[in-house]
Amino acid sequence: xxxxxxxxxxxxxxxxxxxxxxxxxxxxxxxxxxxxxxxxxxxxxxxxxxxxxxxxxxxxxxxxxxxxxxxxxxxxxxxxxxxxxxxxxxxxxxxxxxxxxxxxxxxxxxxxxxxxxxxxxxxxxxxxxxxxxxxxxxxxxxxxxxxxxxxxxxxxxxxxxxxxxxxxxxxxxxxxxxxxxxxxxxxxxxxxxxxxxxxxxxxxxxxxxxxxxxxxxxxxxxxxxxxxxxxxxxxxxxxxxxxxxxxxxxxxxxxxxxxxxxxxxxxxxxxxxxxxxxxxxxxxxxxxxxxxxxxxxxxxxxxxxxxxxxxx
Length: 312
Ligand SMILES: NC(=O)c1ccc[n+]([C@@H]2O[C@H](COP(=O)([O-])OP(=O)(O)OC[C@H]3O[C@@H](n4cnc5c(N)ncnc54)[C@H](OP(=O)(O)O)[C@@H]3O)[C@@H](O)[C@H]2O)c1
Hints:
Helix content is 25%, strand content 29%. It is an alpha/beta fold and 312 residues long. It has two domains: 6-128 and 281-310, Alpha-Beta Complex (Quinone Oxidoreductase, Chain A, domain 1), CATH 3.90.180; 131-256, NAD(P)-binding Rossmann-like Domain (Rossmann fold, 3-Layer(aba) Sandwich). The strands form three sheets. Strands 3, 5, 6, 7, 8, 15 and 16 form a seven-stranded mixed beta sheet that branches. A six-stranded parallel beta sheet has the order 11-10-9-12-13-14, sandwiched between helices. Helix 6 links the parallel strand 12 and strand 13 (229-237). Helix 1 packs across helix 9 (291-299) and helix 3 (129-142) crosses helix 4 (159-170).
């Protein structure tokens, strides 16, 4: 267990823009009975981070340390934790409102963590939890994707989309992805058989009879997606609940999902990455002190893969 009582962390004291982020010295969190305390080596960014900062999601305990995804080394365990021991390398996601992973230490429920395979470095591992679990749960828990089915994945080269394309291919589904010109090659390399440049073409004029749409964009993109589904197909959105009236009109199913922490699924995903079956599409690795620039990049809505903060 560390002798230190305080640590460096990126915190906010109220909602607002990227200028609200500040690097401060704060108390090291204490693990609860079912938690691990982790010395963070890398913290992955997700759009939910800046959405939390802006006050767009229900969460308001200040000061709030930012960040959900992490990879690092177990520093201490709560009395009820059997799964991990001190010194083990783990990756996972924090769950408490005020605990974050943009920090030298964080706590997380042991159930939300997985052992980091040796074949995975901390940056790769920290890029996985929220994005890869979202893709996994959307495709397999909700979409029930089967071999031979066709899946349309919007934003196929972004954080969630990059994993979704590869998971669907691994399941032997046929993948069509939307992306902008500069990401078409990436989407294809990840496993999309067909790619549609969303800025130049209308996917609804090129695609039809798909079994599932993974909607990572919402708005007009979701609106135009109903008609490409076959009857009985499903649209799963991470951003906006599909309107029931539209679902009825097109004879399709649909839902808005919320990603759930899941250490077992995360372990399977980590093993797929370590085996080389799934690649981690990293856009940028930045030092913790540059959390503001990292969130600005994420908030642009045009990240081409995962952004990860390295914690020295
Ligand atoms: N509900 C949940 O539990 C949950 C979980 C995870 C994520 N989410 C949400 O899901 C969304 C996606 O997350 P993410 O991590 O994948 O985000 P991301 O990494 O920031 O994705 C950005 C990607 O979106 C692409 N894009 C932008 N506009 C597009 C359009 N009209 N059509 C197709 N692609 C477009 C961009 O491509 P170009 O730059 O090439 O334009 C970029 O590659 C976010 O809103 C996030 O908050 C929700």
